[in-house]
Amino acid sequence: MATAEVERRRGQLAAVSIAVVVIIVGVPLWWRTTETYRAWLPVSQINELAKLQLQLSADVEVVFARGTVTPEQQKKVPLTQTQDEEHRVDEDTALRYRYETKYRTATVMEEDALNQPTAAEADLALHTLSESPCGSLVVYVIPESSSLLPQDVDVYIGQRRTALLRIGAQMRVGKTLNQLLTHMEPRVKQVLQVMSFSHTDITAALSDRVRLSPGSKESIADSMRAFKSSPGYEITFSLLNPDPKSHRLNWDIEGAVQNYIQPLLTKLAPVANFSIDSQTLYYAVLGVNPRFDSSLGSYTINADSLAHVINPVEARLGSNAASSNPVLNFLLYVPDAHHSPLHIHDRKKQQVKSNAFHSPRWGGIMVYNVNDFYGPEAAFPVDININMAKVMGVFLAQLRLLLGVQLSSPPPGFLVAPCGSAGLADWELDRLMWSRTVENIATATTTITSLAQLLDQIGNIVINDNIAELVSSAVTSLQLAVAELESGNLGFALQYSKEAILASERAFFDPSLLHLLYFPDDQKFAIYIPLFLPMCVPILLSLLKILSDARQRRREKQAKKD
Amino acid sequence: MAAHRCVSSALLVFVCVLSVFTVARSQETTPPGGHGAPATDGPQTVTETTGQTAGQPAAEERRWEATEVKEATPDESAAEEQEAPAADTAAPSAGPRPKDDFQEELVIRPLHSGDIYASFQFRTLWETDFTRENKVSHYRLFPKSLGQVISKFSVRELHISFTQGYWRTMQWGQPYQPSPPGAELWVWFQDSVTDVDETWKELTNVLSGIFCASLNFIDSTNTVQPSASFKPLGIVNVTDHRFLRYATLPREIVCTENLTPWKKLLPCGSKAGLAVLMKSEKLFHSSFHSQAVHIRPVSPTSWELRQTLNVVFDLHTSGQGKREWSLFKMFSRTLTEACPLASSSKIYVDVTDNPQGEQFELSPATPLLSQEVVLGDRRTFSVYDLTQQITFGTVRSLNLLIRWKSSEGDMLRPLLHGERYVAGYGLQTGEIHTLMYNYHPYRSFPVLLLDSVPWYLRLYIHTLTVTSKGKDNKPSYIHYQPSKDRLRPHLLEMLVQLPPNSVTEVTVQFERALLKWTEYTPDPNHGFYVGSSVISSLVPSIVAMDTNITQERPLFSSFFPCKEESSYFVRVYTEPLLVNLPTPDFSMPYNVICLTCTVVAVGYGSLYNLLTRSFQIEEPSPGLAKRLANIIRRMRGVPPL
Questions:
Q1: Bridge partner residues of B305 (DSSP)
Q2: Cα–Cα–Cα angle for B131, B134, B136, rounded to 5 degrees
Q3: Would the CB atoms of B611 and A15 count as touching at under 8 Å?
Q4: Cα distance between the two ends of chain A
Q5: What is the pLDDT of residues A55-82, one digit of tens each?
Q6: What ipTM is given for this predicted complex?
Q7: Per-residue pLDDT tens for A227-242?
Q8: pTM for this structure?
Q9: In chain A, what are the domain boundaries?
């Protein structure tokens, strides 16, 4: 009996030790060999970014010219005011605008500059005196009697970052400075909204993050028209010649780009890189047959059918083989001899004066009729030189629209200086930079948070070190961009936001994330079960048996004691 | 063989046992990531649509807007510089001389087999400098997509061909542009390129997008750098083969989706000129189809883009027994005009073998005859100039018709020919035989043989033999680069002297490697392709070749530059090989997993029982006889035993 007892104890010991070996060695080994590599991601920082609190700081300098403040007001003048404005866009996104307004009186040289005969000259002279940094504004307050501005104009917005503000007559006498300032404040704010950013622009730029409540159709169409922010754009000019047998077209695209487009793009260089090319497509036809309108003696295309125009052409335009940046297409369509002249009619059946139209986030088309350049008896093919000034005027206007440099109509009493040879005023560039920065930040945060969510949800995805690095650098750049926005350094903020968007997109679209093999759990178990079941069942059973034995023995002992 | 199977299956059993433990681990490395794609795409599309749905109705409604232009001339100063008043007027004689030039050409060669060989050539010449610092970006006749490729990847020369079918040199003679079955790509890069391999990889990906082909399957395992066989065809100043990459995809199927982008590169598309004949349902209903794009610099400042398309139509499949051929019958189109952009547009019909019209009848007849030296032979062609209205006659359309009268006549045998096959049996070893024929009656000439063999055929280079006329023929130059598993293929280049009127045989033995189970193609029992060998040679010419480059010549005779009068350049591709590799049963891993698990479980179970059970000696039960006896004894009332 004693030997049997020893034998039984040995068996129990063996079972327990096998179970211990399986648990201590087997399970960790299995765990280690089957786990996927997942590098560390800055999850807490990403979660912080999911709740975005953006602060936009704009510096405004208000300069009082002689005759706008009384001497006793003047004594208090060098002072600074800060105004905060808070907006809640949705539960995760909040905006705060901070306007730092500095007041001072004009220097002697500025006074001289303001004494120029016209506003444009004054603007230029003020610009040569001092150059204000990107993102800041200078508002010169000029007396009512000043002859710089026409009678019905209160505010003049120059080509650079300066504006002239005329002060009302009744404000000067017998008021304290504070009253004067409170009187001026709405005007200054209007100037700010025109020249740097307005709430509608910024919320439109946030559209990647925030589901907008359907506002007015007009404003949505405006915000949908411009291309989304991207580090680079490809601009392609295409000359469509459906009838090379009749028309031999020459266009000096090289010179035209140099003269008209390049200055604008040089100015826009901080926002994005641009590359330009052009091509000529022969036998490219529009997708609709124009109708002949005998009352006008010309062929017409209605605005309703414009949507079908592009499709057959687009197949031939070709995508850019060498980059993946968005392409802006500008097509110059010269109708064939049998369908000339061709005019576009808008919804009100009126002839469109420019004979051009554009499609949001795609590009523009201009129809260029050449039938006036030759008589009916002309010998085909006819050589035709295209007037590039006319064409480029249209394309430049479309380009500005598509890039988002749109001029919403200024408030009453505002006079906006025509943009100069660059085709873009400094403050327009600032405006674009504000909205692009916000848009980049919005897009990058969305990308990063959705990537983090995805990785969190699907545990099988391998996260390599380079992905983690990209994510971290995107997060750092985002934080920097937000911080720079807060301190009002627009240029740096844009730079960091571009870096953030690049890094986040590269992380999101990294092919290594696609290397996921999605094994359904049932298949995994089908493979594990033939091994695990026969191994684990005896262990479990013998463990159970040991337990029940021990319990029985304890009961016996208890019975013995009793 | 059975033993080999046994060993390999034992190996697999072992591998699979291991794989049980590492199933989830191997998830990282096994490629089919297709399942993952939608999962990862999900959030992105969501983020995009959120932006769009908000503005959807408005955007749809206002998608097209008339452009209001406030300032017609935004830049007054610049506008003044322009010759604005003069610009509007039609200028009949004005306009700068265009810097680009387009030519098109069709050569028709009736073959002795009764087939018809049609070779289209389109050439765009452009005076420009892609290597300039500021990129060339204004395209007229030259296709924009290719121009961007050249300037982005600093390409000096690019040759790409897609071929369906095999060119039968012995029946059809030499083609104007030789090409191997499948896809072939070879590129010379500028010497300014620092990382050639990376550039090559990007380039193949971009080209596969442009031509809708699987060129993205070109990687380091099928790319070689030939040292001598592929010299630049344009003007040369670099011949350092570090900047050359050559790859073939013998398996590539060529079809309509490759033809459409190819046609799109033509300035007239398929709307006018010779390209109207290219209807894909007819072109691919042929014995041989090859389309190619060749880009090369022809002078320091001008580039040439040559698009060629070669088709051999089988007379017997479509001729309904009648030996008659016409443009309409073959292409289901006739010609009505030249491409208006082309400076020359011609059709050549090879009538050399038919001087008196005894072999076939050609209509409409043309008075224009031209003699060209091509492929070492002087040939006579009837020429139809499409830029002349008279060519189209009164019906305003040209429908060439060839009606055969007799089927006799013999062809001038091509002087150089190559063949290749795999010998051996079983799935372990084999032997590659390459035969090179020199049919020249009295001249011997050297040829360069290039062989690129994938790594999974392990060449035993010590078994390389070259014999001609039963004697050992020692190559005067051998360049051999051994393969690295899963990294690069074998490259074997040799310069062999072919004796007159002889067959030279090159043999090399190989062993088949075992692939990993993810490396097999979806249809592994079909076999694995090995690209064609390339035989390049300067073949002695019977007639004096034309070495004058500047002289205007038809396109088909000016493809390979000719340096000396006495010889001409020929490239011959052999057949691609189809080799069977040992193929496992792909459901085996799971079976093996189950089997091994069962074996392990049985062994483990008995061991476990031995270790944990306690054994006791039991009283042996009495035997059957004894029990029976006891029963009987009990019945009798006698005490049991």
A1: B124, B295
A2: 65
A3: yes
A4: 25
A5: 888 888 887 777 677 666 666 666 777 8
A6: 0.80
A7: 777 888 888 899 988 8
A8: 0.81
A9: 2-35+518-561, 54-203+412-427, 231-403
